[in-house]
Amino acid sequence: MKGVFIGLFKYHVVPVLIAVVLTIATFFAYKALKPTSSAFKTEIIAGNQEASRNYFSNCVAGNQSELELAGALKNPQTITLFGSSEIGEMRYSPYFFLPDSLGIPTVAFGHAFQQHFSMFCELLAMQKELNGSKICIIISPSWFETEGTNIEAFLEFVRPNFLKSIVHNPSIPMQYKQEIGRYVSEHYKDIEHPAAFLTYFKKLHQFKNVPVLNTEMENSKRGITRVVYDVKTKPVVLPKKQSFDWDERSKVLQKQFVDSIRSNQIYVNDAYYLEYLFKDKHYKKGSIDPIPDATDCREFQDFLLLVDVLKRYNCDASFVIQPLHPYHYEGLDKLAPIVEDVTKVLQKNNFPYLNLFVTDPHKYEPGTLNDIMHLGDYGWMQINRFLYTNYARK
Questions:
Q1: Is 86 contained in some domain?
Q2: What is the dihedral of CA 272, 277, 282, 286, to 10 degrees?
Q3: What predicted TM-score, i.e. pTM, was given to this entire model?
Q4: Which pLDDT tens digit goes with each residue over 201-253?
Q5: How far apart are CA 81 and CA 198, in angstroms?
Q6: Which of 28, 74, 229, 388 would bridge 129 by S-S if both were Cys, CB 3.0 to 4.6 A apart?
Q7: Could you tell me if residue 29 is inside a domain?
């Protein structure tokens, strides 16, 4: 009798128990591996666009500044500028002049060290708002002397919420996410206490050529909150198309600038010249570093990424190429080939552009720059006219 019970237990009960255990284990393993939309927390950042004239150095201030970026891009009436150190308190800057004088909502984002790659990431984060966005990118040729966006600028401009939204957005092609992974991997050692979303991008690049189960990368998203923006745009009643004497206003501003100069003959603001250029009773010219070919220039490759995003998402984009002061800098011809490459790309993609870059001092229009690389009132008025021509109501 005892042998019968042992036989039953051995050949019937034990297999059933093993099957039950394996079934339960398989269920929990599948549940742990299967990526689901409910596997991560979602944060909806909701609010209203408030600004129709202003500039934001970055979006560090928090959710409202992020909503302002989303709202500016989403609003079909708003022109959104992205730039670098030229963004600031200048009376004739488009984000003041166009709203105040012509009633055209205009907002700018950026300050020193914002370059193509950080702009690329910022726009990806706002991918759902990009269709038809009126975007103008202000480029400085000096960016191409650098090795691309530095890590401090990346962490400042590409906010954690931006990266979280990119991680969880299935509409963003993997090739773009891989580019962020490449950048993060290259700079990972310089990031103190990297957050989970940065580690995710690093792994994305690390395993891009390794056969890894899709579920493994999907599961790494679980600790990353999904960020979604829900912004209501600010309606503006645009004035009727106005007649404006651009030539006359520009001539006045140029004359005012030239007449104000007392200390130098290179058409640079007196205060700047005396503080930064005239040392020990001596003026020293600036120089340009050697520039690699476009294929070897990281900044140019980042420019191509930015153009590709603008094209893919049907942005109503335009570009301004700033000058460097030809009276001050020697060797500007080193930059000429890559500026030409930039214009060819813009022409190929049918993006309007204003090219203010010149290498010959005789072709430079005094007043375009206030110092050796930052726009003056006359230069801003040329940009205002360009923007008005491209974006004013037909």
A1: no
A2: -150
A3: 0.88
A4: 999 988 776 665 566 667 777 789 999 999 999 888 777 767 789 999 999 99
A5: 27
A6: 74
A7: yes
- Domains: count for the chain: 1
Residue 203, phi then psi, degrees to nearest 5: -65, -35
The 10 Å Cβ neighbour count of residue 115 is 28
Nearest to 388 by CA among 354, 342, 355: 354
139: β partners = 321
d(CA 303, CA 116): 5
Query: At which residue do the structure tokens 């005789």 appear?
Result: 362
Which residue matches tokens 């092609």?
173
Q: What is the DSSP string of 290-347?
A: ----GGG-HHHHHHHHHHHHHHHTT-EEEEEE----TTTEE-GGGTHHHHHHHHHHHH
Residue with tokens 């401009």: 157
Query: Is residue 201 within 8 Å of residue 155, measured between CB atoms?
Result: no
Helix (H) or strand (E) holding 1: none
What is the rounded distance in angstroms from the CA atom of residue 224 to the CA atom of residue 145? 36
- The boundaries of the domain holding residue 22 are 1-33
66, two tokens? 């992020």
Cβ–Cβ under 8 Å, residues 386 and 354? yes
Three-class SS of 9-26: HHHHHHHHHHHHHHHHHH
Q: 220 with 203: CB under 8 angstroms?
A: yes
Task: List alpha helices for the chain, DSSP H.
Answer: 2-8, 14-33, 63-74, 94-102, 116-125, 151-157, 160-167, 174-187, 196-206, 214-219, 246-260, 270-272, 298-312, 336-348, 377-391
- Cβ atoms of 53 and 106 within 8 Å: the answer is yes
178, two tokens: 């891989």
Give me the residues paired with residue 353 across strands: 319
Are β-strands 282-283 and 278-279 bridged in parallel, bridged antiparallel, or unpaired?
A: antiparallel
Residue 6 lies in a domain: yes
Sorting pLDDT into bands at 50, 70 and 90, what band is 379?
very high
Q: Give the separation between CA 61 and CA 358, rounded to whole angstroms.
A: 37
CA nearest neighbour of 49 among 6, 78, 23: 78
Lowest-confidence pick of 102-111, 241-250, 337-346: 241-250
Distance CA 371, CA 177 (A): 38
In a domain, 27, yes or no: yes
